[in-house]
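$ fold --in a.seq
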Amino acid sequence: MHILMIECNPNGMAGIANALELGHDVTLISVDPDFYLAISPLTADAYAHPNCRVVKSEAAFDIEELLALVRRIHAEHPVHGVTTYSEYHTVHTAAAAKELGLPGMSVDGARNARHKHRTRLALDGKGIRQPRFRHVADPADVEAAVRAIGFPCVAKPSDGTASLHVLHLRDEADLADYLAELAAVADYGRGVTRIPDIVIEEFVPGELISVESCVLGPGEVVNLGLTDRPLSGFPHFIEMGATYFSGHPLQEELFDLTTKALNELGVDFGFIHTEFLLGPDGPVLCEVNGRLIGGIVPSLMQITSGVDAYLEVIRLALGERPELPFPGETTAGGHWFGAPLDGVVESIEFDLDGQPGFHSALAYKKPGTPVSRLSKSNFDWIGHVIFTGVDRTEVNKRCEAALDHIDLRMRVAVAR
């Protein structure tokens, strides 16, 4: 079978590698294929595989240009499934699947999930608790929206991901700094242009937790499990860990809310990641992501369930009924870490062998690589650790204790 992958993400290269190992042909369309070479150790072997074709296209983020390219690829070598692991490209993937008459999410459903203002507007008044919000289409109207919501509030680009440019605003000074920063952001890199829409929301205190689901078709939502998401301190919202589990006291309510939200949004196909804040009055919808959860969580799913979620994404796109990664008896979780200062990595070493529940650890940055201080978004991560345990409390304690066993050495500039 021939799988068309429209961009990817670094961890998602495992899905491409697994598909190639099973004998499938894979075509990856990317604005910058070298990006994956620099980050994932699986990329070089995947690109060298005889069944892998990499198509570099500077215009891949333009949907009309992309569809013309997809038609040419399909004419040369018929495509049997279209998918992505990239949040930025879920709408593009839905459009390509529709163009070829293949399984995929409805384009409107993909847009409703992809753009946060569409999510908010589509669910407004539908019985799903959301923060008070204002959708701002013109940046000139941001200040009025902030005053309507009041401080403290949260500002976020409608098409962002990985907590990039999401900020907790406390006062007028924070707002002025935020507007100046966002005005300089025309794109997110790799050809991904930013739309002007911004969402201003009331700040809802509480634990961030997500529901991982698989939608087999219209109205067929299967909720799999939960992922806890401890965050760094304000003003940014950096995810510092994740544990994939089941058994939360609010699980059934969260599952019911997720099913209702996905059906209302028209999200009718694929693995889906839906985030909630557990506020003082109950779960509040944070956002819906029309793709498999990113980061290390698919690995956590595989550890606890034995099911490779990356591969099941591909099987679903090929029209097969996927095996679903429900949490098992063993709970798996991980913790990310970053640099305390801007500088250049000299070495990252782990002393974790023999620690209870230790599964694996990975440094993302090679010696000689410049890194930023962990301060603004998930893109500041430089590595992770993964542990298992009997429940998420034990796993989280083990992950936090492991941070004392990481030896990070850096070269930093000395202030004069």
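$ fold --in b.seq
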Amino acid sequence: MRQEYIINACTGKAINVMKGQTITIIDIEGTQVVDFFAEAKENPDEFLSTGVTIDCNESLKLKVGDLIYSNLYKPMFEILLDDVGEHDLLHPCCRPEMYDFFYNNGNGHSNCLENINNSLNSNRPIIHPVNFFMYTKINTDGSISVEKPISKAGDKVVLKALMDMRIGAAACSVSESNCNGGKCSPIKIIVSE
């Protein structure tokens, strides 16, 4: 069984996945960030945690073979394939307050926090997703800068689900910076056995 989902620019979608299924996340046009979040199917209070993922992998970077963990320190996903090798574990979902802080345009701005919350029928005050394809440069002095993603059209990341989950994914809405290369575009997710 194979299911394909297109997530249009600046929107989000919920996708049910079962343990053992493969999730392929494709950057259709290139330089598009995917805010990727998940919660355990039977317990939404268990959810993807980038902080725990950093802790368990002892790294600010993800690589093939790494696991993505829940807030309860349980493995949720294994990374099977990665065409890009540059993803962000630091930034929370964009939200109206972020747009106000940086660009003074938060009112009514499409954002990943609301897109993921709406897709999952939840109301989380903040979400720390894995930002696939987002390039956050980490400098030796501890400062960071968001650079243009290095992903090209068709680049992908492939994950294996290690529990039954509901994924909330969004095609990031930031066009005001280098985050999505200055332009928002759609993404594709394929779930297969």
